[in-house]
Design goal:
Helices cover 32% and strands 30% of the residues. The chain is an alpha+beta fold. The chain has three domains: 116 residues, SH3 type barrels; 130 residues, Nucleotidyltransferase, domain 5, CATH 3.30.420.60; 96 residues, 60s Ribosomal Protein L30, Chain: A (2-Layer Sandwich), CATH 3.30.1330.30. Helix 1 packs antiparallel against helix 2 and helix 9 packs parallel to helix 10. The chain is flat and about 80 Å long. It starts with a strand and ends in a 15-residue tail after the last strand. One of its GO terms (biological process) is nuclear-transcribed mRNA catabolic process, no-go decay.
């Protein structure tokens, strides 16, 4: 008989839903309030259907997370007596902001406990915003410690400049700029955000910033004029979201972004690639190779994607937990990358696990591996 140990959690902001998604696993128990349709029959034989709010406890079978809406849906069978729902009946619980739920696990491993500590840390904020743009295309993003949230994508056709006919081009550009400004005003909370990056090729960013602050003075948008010092202009190769990685690598931004997790992830991945190029025997990636390095107590910094810990294969998850625990026991540093950051996506292409080593390990084993 398994004994499930439970914790009660209350998600207060969208990122908390991401933490919940990384905590809930198949086989766990989940208790929360929910709405259930109940069919009742009166003495006269008429049937009515009513919605009732009740508390259910299910054993988790499937988990679905909507990254845009930050909605977590968990489906499973009811495992506690309930006047409205039979034992063993399927139900889907929608985990919502500011609504308490209890999560039970047979075993709380170190990664799950660290995740709870991280979620409860009040210093973790979405303190960075970015506008990645080129003429006719812009992405407005919020960068939290664990997620890059696309809050607005603005795409519009701007007529080309023609000799003696610039009015249409200027009108199109103004409309494009206005849409970006509205997206910034709508999605950036300047009480929390410490820095807003405006990135583009060429002078697009400069022209936009000049227009935005001219309009801010004209329209008396104090929220923009009072926070002008938070805006930083930086080069990017394009207006596409993937350009965010190169933007965060810009050395001139380091003082502004020193405390953000997004930058520490990018920096760690950059150090790994530098090691791979300059001293390949001190860089390792792939589960088998990293496991060997852990056994030799060689891992200085472990880079691992949170995606691996969401594996529904219990043995695979335990394998990754063992790697993390082994590195910590030997005094190494563990960096868990969010798969919703650009750097996390890039680490995923390297099987999701890599390591910078204390000393060289020559590995002749190039066998293909099964990654999970």
């Amino acid at each position: 008989m398994f004994v499930f140990r439970s914790v009660e959690l209350v998600p207060e902001e969208p990122e908390d839903m991401w933490h919940a998604y990384n905590l809930v696993a198949v086989g766990d128990t989940l208790r929360s309030t929910t709405i259930r349709k109940v069919q009742t029959e009166s003495a006269t034989g008429s049937v009515s259907v009513n919605k009732v709010r009740t508390t259910l406890c299910i054993q988790v079978e499937t988990i679905d997370f909507d990254t845009q809406g930050c909605v977590l849906r968990v489906k499973g069978r009811n495992i506690q007596e309930n006047q409205y729902v039979k034992m063993g009946a399927y139900h889907t619980l929608d985990l919502e902001l500011n609504r308490k739920f209890a999560l039970g696990k047979h075993e709380w491993d170190s990664v799950a406990l660290d995740r709870i500590d991280m979620a409860c840390d009040p210093t973790q904020h979405a303190d960075l915003a970015a506008v990645i743009m080129q003429e006719g295309l812009a992405h407005v993003c919020l960068i939290t410690p664990n997620m890059t949230l696309l809050r607005a994508k603005i795409e519009t056709t701007i007529p080309r400049k023609r000799k003696g006919m610039c009015a249409q081009h200027d009108k199109g550009l103004t409309k494009f700029y206005d849409q970006i400004i509205q997206a910034v005003l709508r999605h950036v909370n300047f009480d929390i955000v410490k820095c807003v990056l405006i990135a583009s090729p060429g002078f697009v960013k400069d022209q936009f910033a000049e227009y935005m602050f001219t309009m801010a003075v004209k329209m008396d948008w104090k929220i923009l004029t009072d926070n002008k010092s938070k805006f930083v202009l930086v080069h990017s190769s394009s207006g596409f979201k993937h350009s965010l990685k190169e933007v965060l690598q810009d050395p001139s931004l380091a003082p502004k972004l020193a405390d953000t997790k997004a930058l520490t992830e990018v920096k760690a991945l950059d150090e790994f690639y530098q090691m791979l190029m300059n001293d390949a025997d001190r860089a390792s990636y792939g589960v088998k190779h990293v496991e060997k390095a852990v056994d030799l107590q060689a891992v200085e910094v472990l880079l691992i994607s949170d995606e691996l810990f969401r594996s529904q294969d219990v043995q695979k998850r335990k394998r990754y937990i063992k790697i993390v625990d082994g590195v910590k026991e030997n005094g190494g540093e563990v960096r868990i990358f969010s798969s919703l950051h650009v750097s996390g996506e890039q680490l995923g292409q390297l099987s999701g696990v890599a390591a910078i080593l204390r000393f060289p390990i020559h590995d002749d084993d190039d066998d293909s591996e099964e990654e999970g």
